[in-house]
């Protein structure tokens, strides 16, 4: 009986010590990065667009180690532009994206109208309106072509495949590194 009491007594002490340690850890880990620091180190991309056919669009960022960060959004057919956001935290130079692109869906041929693209990192940002969505800053793969209207992209099937991608040119990305 005395042994049982000692066992529960020690068990109670251990539980209390573990509780105190956990509370101490939680209090000391109050988010050592402040909001401004994490915002400063976040490479952010915001795209406003609309599409003629519902599909899944993805913002993809790859770094030199070929690590991929992406954000997938289903864009519905709507008269209003929808916002797609993506990005990644960058704490070290090697994490900085070496390539950035937007996949323009894969289901079927469509017309995509990009109203704007904004890229920001630290205290720098770059805004592209629909007139800037052209060969000067962006490149399309063989499954897409720039339309006659600024900001317009037509996707197409090639050899029975549909994988349209809008690439950000290296000069655009290098402005932030």
Write a concise synopsis of the structure shown.
The chain has 177 residues and is α+β, with helices and mostly antiparallel strands. The chain is built from three helices and eleven strands, in the order ααβββββββββββα.
Q: What secondary-structure arrangement, pairings included, does this model have?
A:
Blueprint: H1 2-28, H2 35-40, E1 42-51, E2 55-63, E3 68-75, E4 82-89, E5 97-103, E6 111-121, E7 124-129, E8 138-140, E9 144-146, E10 152-155, E11 165-168, H3 170-174
Antiparallel strand pairs: 1-4, 1-6, 2-3, 2-5, 5-11, 6-7, 6-10, 8-11, 9-10
Describe this structure as you would to a colleague.
The chain has 177 residues and is an alpha+beta fold. Strands 1, 4, 6, 7, 9 and 10 form a 6-stranded antiparallel sheet that branches. A 5-stranded antiparallel sheet has the order 3-2-5-11-8. The longest helix is centred in the first third of the chain and has 27 residues, at 2-28. The radius of gyration is 24 Å and the shape is globular. β6 and β7 form a beta hairpin. The protein has helices spanning 2-28, 35-40, 170-174, and strands at 42-51, 55-63, 68-75, 82-89, 97-103, 111-121, 124-129, 138-140, 144-146, 152-155, 165-168. It is built from 3 helices and 11 strands, in the order ααβββββββββββα.
